[in-house]
Amino acid sequence: MKEKMNFDFTRRDFIRATAAGAVGVTLGMNILEGAEPAKKPLNYNPEMEYRRLGRTGLMVSAVCLGGHWKRIDTVVSGGGGINNPDFQKNRYDVVSRCIERGINYIDACTSQEVLAYSRALKGRREKMYLGFSWFEQEMRNPEFRTAEKLLQTLERGMKEAGLDYVDVWRITMHEQSSRHTEGEVEEMMKALQKAKQQGKARFVGFSSHDRPHIKWMIEKYPDVVEVVCTPYTAKTKVLPTDSLFDTVKKYQVGVFGIKPFASNSLFKGNSALNHPEAEEDNKRARLAIRYILCNPAITAPIPGLINIQQVDNVAIAVKERRELDAKETAYLNKAADEMWARLPADYQWLKDWEYV
After folding, report:
1. CB 226 within 8 A of CB 299
2. Is 171 exposed, middle or buried (0-12, 13-18, 19+ CB in 10 A)?
3. Quick one: pLDDT at residue 298?
4. Which residues sit opposite 131 in a β-bridge?
5. Residue 242 CB-half CA count within 13 A
6. Residue (of 19, 35, 51, 58) closest to 222 by Cα position
7. Stronger pLDDT, 102 or 8, i.e. the higher one
8. Would you say residue 25 has pLDDT above 60?
9. Residues 188-200, buried b or exposed e (16+ Cβ, 10 A)?
10. Domain 11-27+36-353, CATH
């Protein structure tokens, strides 16, 4: 884990390339007018669709790998301990299939996820972008709500994972991020800005489940916020007026949609390959991915995938016809209603994300 990863360019190259942008931020220049030019998709596969990650210029696969591995015990003996050899093989195999399918971004938001995926990417880091959050020592922890402490977390996590820099540092905020004071938000933005200036993060943003607050942060810090991670499910609809996505499009912010399957509440089975409902659950997953991708403001949904069959299934969804026909729409609406009814008590808040 102490060995450095192989990156497509060095931190020194990155600092040179972004020096002008850092100066622009310092001088208060409006960088929205000069978004990064689109880059050739990393790990390009002609069978995969790629979408621009806001103004970053990164071309990201239309479906990406979320860091979570819920229900891993249905396919891995001993569960999800990152030192479990069976788990390590599972993550390596899943990442390998993602690479084969042209998926090029992993979103890791916990210390265990960062360590697990850094290990799975060892020797082939040039194939994938890696999103980083070490949430245990970020904004959800009151002890880490200053720029200094947040930067220490980034540096500590990078060192432990053997990373020279991260592609996206997206700090995990409290789900209801409006609970943070304006001073705490200011400190977070300072940390994100400084991480870019120092060449530790190529691009930056945050994760929040608080729509009005997300909108406020984008508008108040338009030259800092480049990426947002926020819920978007098979039940989510765009408000006709004053939608969060109006702000996202105006400021060219990339959006990763978390909880696309509502923490697996969309499914009837338990994600085991031999479950009687496995085929129908695969159909539901594909329809949900297609539905979510109908919103061009979503860069990519980021489901947690626990086996190579699930990777294949979401990749197939990207290739299928995008718009759902009347029969498919009725089927998904019924499945989404069942999903809402199955939401556990600690996920009832997702219902607030029906209209965005």
Report:
1. no
2. buried
3. 97
4. 107, 168
5. 3
6. 35
7. 102
8. no
9. bbbbbbbbbbbbb
10. 3.20.20.100
pLDDT tens for each residue of 181-234: 999 999 999 999 999 999 999 999 999 999 999 999 999 999 999 999 999 999
- Coil, strand or helix: which one is 107? strand
The CA distance from 346 to 348, in Å, is 6
> What residue ranges do the domains of the chain occupy?
11-27+36-353
Distances (CA, A) of 24 to 34, 189, 204, 272: 11, 16, 16, 51
Residue whose pair of structure tokens reads 């592609």 in the numeric block: 167
Of 172, 139, 145, 169, nearest to 155 (Cα)? 169
Q: What is the pTM of this model?
A: 0.89
Length of the chain: 356
Q: How far apart are CA 202 and CA 78, in angstroms?
A: 36
> CA–CA separation, 288 vs 55, rounded Å?
26
pLDDT band at 37 (very low <50, low <70, confident <90, very high): confident
Strands (E), the chain: 50-52, 59-61, 65-66, 105-108, 129-132, 166-172, 201-207, 227-231, 254-258, 300-301
* CB-neighbour burial class of residue 225 (10 A; exposed 0-12, middle 13-18, buried 19+): buried
CB atoms within 10 A of CB 124: 15
Q: What is the pLDDT of residue 9?
A: 37
